[in-house]
Specification:
By secondary structure, the chain is mainly α. It has one domain. It is about 70% helix and about 0% strand. The chain is elongated and about 45 Å long. This is ABC-2 type transporter domain-containing protein.
């Protein structure tokens, strides 16, 4: 993902626009991960997303 945002950063006029866009995409993804809680305590759809996340497999 870093290379995607780096490439987009070279294509846009203002660096602030890519910073705002990346935060809009990455901020919600942090809540759909198992950083803050275990998948067993999440709702069904969120737990399904976490189960296909590679970091969940390595944490168990």
């Amino acid at each position: 993902m870093g290379w995607i945002f780096t490439t987009l950063g070279m294509l846009v006029r203002k660096p602030e626009s890519i910073t705002n866009t990346s935060m809009m995409l990455l901020f919600p993804l942090s809540f759909i991960s198992n950083i803050f809680t275990t998948p067993e305590t999440m709702s069904g759809w969120m737990a399904a997303i976490v189960r296909v996340n590679p970091s969940w497999c390595s944490a168990r």
